Amino acid sequence: MPIDMWSLGCILVEMHTGEPLFPGNSEFDQMIKIVEVLGMPPRYILDQAPKTKKFFERDDKGEYHCRRHRDMKMYKNPGSRSINDIIGVNTGGPQGRRIGESGHGADDYSVFVDLIVKMLNYDPNTRISPLNACR
Questions:
Q1: If we measure between CA atoms, which residue out of 65, 51, 40 comes closest to residue 122?
Q2: What's the pTM value of the predicted model, to 2 decimals?
Q3: Engineered SS bond to 94: which of 17, 49, 62, 83, CB 3.0-4.6 Å?
Q4: Pairing of β 56-58 and β 64-66
């Protein structure tokens, strides 16, 4: 199921880094943390989502933006935290803890990041399936 693949992607990153990928303490905080890493959800997703108005607002041009919150100064811009940096693709793992270890080279991390990105696709209809993830 698509939601299970999303969850598995989050769990795999947490197992690798030792920290939750999206450590939110409320629905709003959780959504903003997701947007910081994955960028804004596609417009067609937001147009269909039942809680869009709770987290996003539209400007005069019809573009969606994160709703302003009293603590917005503590949030980063959409897409400003990269999966590569979180996983440590170019640094030998998180905080360089796995530098030089077998299976932790740039090519290995590239395959891992590719899988995680496919698991965290906003669109459940195009998110990677369990069968394709095993290939």
A1: 40
A2: 0.89
A3: 17
A4: antiparallel
**Encoded tokens for 22:** 């999206």
Neighbours of 131 (CB within 10 A): 7
Nearest-10 Cα torsion for 55, 59, 63, 67: -20
Locus of tokens 């804004």: 40
The residue assigned the tokens 């990105």 is 117
Contact between 54 and 67 under an 8 Å Cβ cutoff? The reply is yes
Question: For the chain, how far is it from start to end, CA to CA, in angstroms?
Answer: 17
Taking the chain (135 residues) in runs of 10, the rounded mean pLDDT of each run is 90 96 92 95 97 95 87 76 93 87 89 97 96 92
Tokens for 24?
């939110």
CATH 1.10.510.10 fits 2-133, yes or no: yes
Q: What is the pLDDT of residue 38?
A: 97
